[in-house]
Amino acid sequence: QNQVTSVAIKNSNDAPTISKHIYGHFAEHLGHCIYGGFFVGDTSKIPNTNGVRNDIVKALKELKIPNLRWPGGCFADTYHWKDGIGPKENRPTIVNQWWGGVTEDNSFGTHDFLNMCELLGAEPYLSGNVGSGTVQELADWMQYTNFGGKSPMSDLRRKNGRTEPWKVKYWGIGNEAWGCGGNMTADYYANEYRKFATFMSDWNNTGGLIKIASGANSSDYNWTETLMKNIPLNMLGGVGVHHYAVIDWNKKGADVAFTEKEYFLTMQSALKMEELVTKHAAVMDKYDPEKKVAMIVDEWGAWYDVQKGTNPGFLYQQNTMRDAVLAGATLNIFNNHADRVKMANLAQCVNVLQAVILTDKAKMITTPTYHVMKMYSVHQDAKLIPIEFTSPLYIFNGQTIPAVSMSVSKDQKGLIHISLVNIDAVNKNKIEIDTASLGAQKYTASIITASKLQEYNSFENPDKIVPVAFKGFENKKGKLEITIPPFSVLVLEGK
Ligand code: AHR
C-alpha cells in the first residue's frame, strides 16, 4: 500500500504513567501451568529452587514480570488455602473439578507461591475464594500472609517456617462470580463483596491493600455499573474485566493450522478490547470521575481448541506469530488507556492458553508472545505520550478492522519508545510520525515477524521467531517514516 498514515503526537502534560502492572501474568492450578510447569518439586533433576524451575524464573525475570495472579481462575473458588500449608506429606489431596478432574496433592501452596514471587521479584496477586469459601477463611489467609505480630495465623506461619510476613497487597474477592465463581447476579455479588471486604485487613503492613472485585464478562457493562453503584468507593481498589480473543466458543479453531479468515476473526475479537475498555471506563467515570478505582483486566489472551492428543481440560495450545500480533495490539490498547487500566494479566503464564513459556520435561522454550512482552517491557512505569491517527484498514472478505496499532511512552531516563503493530496479514503499511516534539535525535528499532503467520517456536527450533534489528525506517527532520511489514510487531527507541 502506498498510502501513508500520519501520526500526530499530542500534548502529554497530563498524561498518565503506564503502570508496570499492565504487564502482569496469571498462573492457575490448571493443566501444566503449576505442576510440570513452574513447579517440578525439589527432588526433580531439573534445576530448581525449592521445587520451582530455575530456567522459568530466569526467563520471567528477564521479562521484568511485575505481578503474578494465583491460584485461579475458576480453581480459586474451590481452593482452601489451609490445604496447602504445613508438611507436604500431611496435605490433603483434592480433585481439580474445573480442570480435567485430576488429583491435586496441594504440594504447591501459599509458601511455595509467595516465595516464588520473591524469587521472581514479582508482586503476588492472590485470588480469594468467595464461591465456596468463607469470610473467616479469607480473613485468616490475610492474617497468615501479612501480620507481623503475634496472632493465631501469624504463629502458624512461623511454625511453618516463615518468620516475616510477605505483605501481599493485591487481593481478588472471588473470580468470575457471574459464572464458575458462584453464578451470582451482579446485585448479589456486590453485597457479597461488601461483606468480604469488610473483614479484610492488611494488618498495617502493605502500605495500602488493593481489593479487587470480580469483574465483568467481556461486554457486560451492567455488571460494572452495578458494582460501581453499590460498593462504596473506599472499599473498592479495582474492578476486573475478563475478555478472551475467541472466534466462537463452540468452535474455537486450531492453534497452528488456521486460515487467514480465522486469523482475521481472532484479531477482530482481540481488538474488541478497545471498545470494552472504553465503555467500562465510561461507566466507571460516572461513579468515580477522579479515577481512584483501577480497571484490572485480570484475564486476557487468545483461546483456541486444545492441541490434538492433549487433555481437553488442560487448555494447552501452541503460540504462533498470530499470538505475537495479538499481544502487541492488546498491550497498545492498555498503554493508551493507562489513565484507568492499572493492571492486566495475560492468561496464562506457562503451558496454558496464550502462554509465554512452554515446557516439555527438562526443555523450556519462550513463545513469540514472550518476545513481544519483553520488547514492550520498556513501557513499564514510563509516561504515556498520547497520539492521534486514523488507522489504515485491514480488509478481509469485505470486513474491516484497523490495521495499525501503536503506543508511545517516555521512560524515566528520557528514552522514547514507540511500539507498532501491523495486523494486516498481507499488506505492509507506511506511517509517518511527527516526532519533532519528542526531542529524540537518533532511533533504533527491533522487530518480530515470521515468513508465515502460522510459524512458532518449537522444542526442536526454539529460536525460529525472535526479535531482530529493524532498518525499515527513515529519520528525516522531525519525521519518522516507517514501513511496517505485514503481521509484525516493532519497537523503536529514540534518544
Ligand atoms: O483462564 C482459564 C479460565 O478462564 C479461568 O479459570 C477462568 O477465570 C476463565 O473463565
Structure, described:
This is non-reducing end alpha-L-arabinofuranosidase. Keywords: Carbohydrate metabolism, Glycosidase, Hydrolase, Signal. Its EC number is 3.2.1.55. With 495 residues, this protein is an alpha/beta fold. It has helices at residues 54-62, 110-120, 135-146, 152-159, 186-198, 221-230, 260-287, 321-336, 368-376; strands at 4-9, 24-26, 48-49, 52-53, 67-70, 94-95, 103-104, 123-128, 170-173, 210-217, 238-245, 294-302, 341-346, 357-360, 363-366, 383-385, 387-388, 393-396, 399-402, 404-410, 416-422, 429-434, 443-448, 468-469, 473-476, 479-484, 488-494. The chain has an 8-stranded parallel β-barrel with strand order 2-5-8-9-10-11-12-13, surrounded by 5 helices. It has a 6-stranded antiparallel β-sheet with strand order 16-20-21-27-23-24, covered by helices on one side. Strand 18 and strand 19 (399-402) form a beta hairpin. The relative contact order is 0.14. The mean pLDDT is 97. Alpha-L-arabinofuranose (AHR) binds next to loops.
